Amino acid sequence: MTLLLGLDIGTTATKGVVIAPDGRVVARASRPSDLSSRRPGWAEEDPEQWWVNVVELCRQLGSTRDIAAVGVSGMVPCVIALDARGEPLRPSIQQNDARAAAEIDELRGRLDEERVLARTGSGITQQSVGPTLLWLQRHEPEVWAATATIQGSYDHVVLRLTGEAGVELNWALESGLYDLHRGTWAEDVLQACGCDPALLPPVRRPEDVVGKVTAEAARETSLNEGTPVVAGAADHVAAAFASGVVADGDLLIKLGGAGDILMATERPVIDRRLFLDHHLIPQMWMPNGCMASSGSLLGWFRDNLAPNASLEELDAAAAASRPGSRGILALPYFLGEKTPVHDPRARGAFVGLHLGHTRADLFRSLLEAVAFGFRHHIDVFAENGMVPTKVRVADGGSRSRLWVSILAGALARPVERVEVEDASALGAAFVAGVGTGVFASWREIERFVRVRDVIDPADTAVYDETYRRYRALYPALREVLA
Q1: Confidence of residue 64 (pLDDT cuts 50, 70, 90)
Q2: What is the mean pLDDT of residues 16-32?
Q3: Strand bridging mode 92-93 / 3-9
Q4: pTM greater than the 0.85 cutoff
Q5: Which residues constitute the domain of residue 474?
Q6: Which H/E stretch holds residue 228?
Q7: Which CATH number fits the domain that encloses residue 382?
Q8: Residues 100, 182: one domain?
Q9: Structural domain total, the chain
Q10: Is 22's pLDDT higher than 90?
């Protein structure tokens, strides 16, 4: 039996999924990963732990002798500095690491940021790789002097499996170092960052077969020596694809700890308020955004304001409140905000409280605030001529029918709830199938997608008015809450 293995190098866990070409998930497993923050604003992980997890997952999932190909997805664009032997010189620097604030400001002064945005699709932000490289040169010169290669998370696992170095296309694009129009590294940006282009390995498309499982990797993982391994995919792009975001105008909202919104388009959307990725399907794009807090807001509320209640109980109580939360308006910027405002100093707020309000009203206002944050992104899409034709929702928050109904009302669109577990790993496995000819068409992903139900919009007039107030709140409070 032909099987395909997908691995996902996530922030909190490494996951593995084995799929069959007929649309079945044959097996899945996961292993925890540890995020380290040795200093304020730092976010690091141990690449060796990822590899140990991969080895254990391969052995646990079984049937590895039937695996026809392997794909890997992962966090992007984290940075791993490797020595000449391909071994990490230090822990990874994660994509949400905030240590390089001074270097961000410096590069903005050295470079024309508008021109960088137009060429690379990325502004100079906390997620850019360039400021991180500058930080390494200044604060860890011994590491920088020994660095022979720069890679990302899933690229490194591919290296461990095959012995071949490369970076997948969306690591390159999200790095802010890659000229998306010319398809080459942007040498002037690299020069400003003090980075020799020789440190960056070849750029690969997701389905490109980078190499084959080596004898050493086969002994460790129990995979067959010679099994093809493809370049893989950025985790959020793979997850959206595995949720059926395949046609122009398809849109996915991920209600996880953070909140992601991704749209399939036939042309690139370059806007400093958004991120830009290549779609897995050639000649397509995936502009997207990320809200720093989504489900994490609900956990904060439960832990601090309702320690004796479960999220399910709070959800049920919020359903008894009214659309508009009986006048309470919340800002969801409890961890600052990424897109579309890009303000790490933004803060959360509850506004409009009176003595008649209840805990249920407060909780519902957070559900509505996240929904309005996604509507803000859709407004940005619309300003760029992109209107969603289909909206889907996934991840843990999608289990709340109330939250999805609020989302449908706030967006004034039907919302489909999809049932897909470990979507990034599933997407990576499918990419491996495309790269080795198991799948003849990218659209065959649809056989893996399950739509649980469709929730139609309601109370749209109330949400329109509340959203108008929501958009006015952040500008009004920005100076006070800084």
Answers
A1: low
A2: 96
A3: unpaired
A4: yes
A5: 244-419+449-482
A6: strand 228-230
A7: 3.30.420.40
A8: yes
A9: 2
A10: yes
